[in-house]
Amino acid sequence: MKDNRSYYDDFAGWYERERHHGYHAMLDRLQVGIARPLAAGKDVLELGCGTGLILKEIEPYARRAVGLDISRGMLGQAHARGLSVLAGSATDLPFKDESFDLVYSFKVLAHVQAIEQAMREVARVLRPGGRAALEFYNKASLRYLIKRFKRPHKVSDGTTDDQVYTRYDSLAEVKRYLPADLSVVDLHGVRVFTPFAQVHRVPGVAQALSAAERIARDQALTARFGGFLVVIVEKR
Q1: For a tag site, which of 3, 7, 45, 197 has the least CB within 10 Å?
Q2: Within a 10 A sphere around the Cβ of 84, how many other Cβ atoms?
Q3: How far apart are alpha carbons 65 and 92 in whole angstroms?
Q4: Range of the domain at 81
Q5: What does the pLDDT look like over 47-84, one tens digit per residue?
Q6: How far is CA 137 from CA 88, 128, 129, 229, 234, in A?
Q7: CATH number reported for the structural domain that contains residue 222 in this entry
Q8: What are the respective helix, strand and coil percentages of the chain, to the nearest 5?
Q9: Which residues, in sequence order, are bridge partners of residue 232?
Q10: pTM for this model (two decimals)
Q11: CA atoms of 60 and 30, how far apart (whole Å)
Q12: Nearest Cα residue to 2 out of 168, 164, 182, 214
């Protein structure tokens, strides 16, 4: 097991190898589609911005968009994109109270062990009435079932994806992580139907699955079963 900073610094060189097409590009489109309407004209923070693939899609719509990541290896590529980013931890945000109207985080919170502290920090930096789009790995999903039997996947020459802390949560557990001033107002589910990333390499199947995932993301009946469960919370 590696600490998060070392893991993602190691991952940084390979991170974008497969992110511009197929399955990973679909995930990014679905996640951008959640965050972008919430970001319009707002002061926005992305927790775990990585190389800036999502932040670059949000930044043109926001009044101000800032990214934060624990990995300087990842941030080097975000800096090269001209994005406003800085190094820091989700459990100790380097911002004043009530600095943002929107905080969003994708593919990150499942790897944060002190998750309740991270949620307190989200609440602290949000303004009253502000919202956060927070993605968790979902126990009630096809992805979780498959991951239990899947072989480790290489993220660099010397590192596999089972070498970082990873947690899967139920919706009830997610709600328990939230401080009293944050309440869930909406849900989205990303990757409801996709069994394996590789199916998005098959012509025809990829298009059909992508269309189905887009519809399922925002439907109450299907969102709860997304491999990536996105809760929209509001600060009172």
Answers
A1: 3
A2: 14
A3: 19
A4: 4-235
A5: 999 999 999 999 999 999 999 999 999 999 999 999 99
A6: 22, 27, 26, 6, 20
A7: 3.40.50.150
A8: 40, 25, 35
A9: 133, 186
A10: 0.93
A11: 18
A12: 164
